[in-house]
Request: fold
Amino acid sequence: MTANPESSHDHSHDDHGHDRHGHVHSHAASSRELLFAFGLTLAFAVLEAIAGAWSGSLALFGDAGHMLTDALALALAFIAARIALRPVSARHSYGLMRAETLAAFINGLTMLAIITALLWQAVVRLIAPRPVAGEAVTIVALAGLAVNLFVAWRLTRGARDLNTRAALLHVAGDALGSVAALASGLVIQFTGWVAIDPLLTMLICGLILASTLNLLRQAVHTLLEGVPAHLSLHEVGRAMAAAQGVHSVHDLHIWSLDSRRPALSAHLVITDLRHWEDILARERALLAERFGIAHVTLQPEPASGAAVAIHFAHTEPRAKQ
Reply:
């Protein structure tokens, strides 16, 4: 008679209370930096929009619009960071840590909309050039660059989660926009060549696009519970199956609770259930020290008569031919 692998109820998982406590401090520090960045960015966006409208510069006005959406993105990131601090509940057993990943995804989509709008306006300006006040553009763009660099520096002091990275991407795009506006102002001021304004805008959009697509890819991967990029499912499975007393590993799953916290669950077919506690301790130590996985759920199964599909047998990998 074969054993049903799902009939065992001997589940074991780690106590991650201390781990969550550390992340709470990290999220709190990150949210403070996001709130500061939001206030400063919003204030300067209003000033830059007024200057852009007065000077007639697309690069400057576009940068102001970019900063305004950045302020909204920072506000969204702040709200998500605060939501992520909420404890686990009967409705959300993992908590709400993925709110930050969702915010990063929304911010990435916002960046795509901004890039599309600026590219369209740049094409319009190339077809029908307009006069630009170069000196005013230079002064405001220089101030905007200083603000963006200061905000970016503050954000790098917080947590490096996907949410903060998305907010930082917005700010970095802003900084590049300010550089474009600054260069545009200088060129127009000394040469009168107004075409530089939309051309630099298009260049900056291209630079931001690559980072935005990469951010969206990572956010979608996390939301779809993909295996974290720095981990290999097969490598982890082989390492677990090679532990003393383990016959094989199956139903192995690795995903991310958020952009920084991987989780793992697996069924372990073991040769002697009496040694389960020792095997469990070794597997936890292996996963934490070698792969950085602290949230682990493992289920033991007896080796004899287990009707399972063995995916990771306790054998040495064959040498490449």
Observations:
- The helical segments are 17-55, 58-84, 99-127, 134-156, 162-191, 196-223, 233-241, 276-291.
- The chain is about 65% helix and 10% strand.
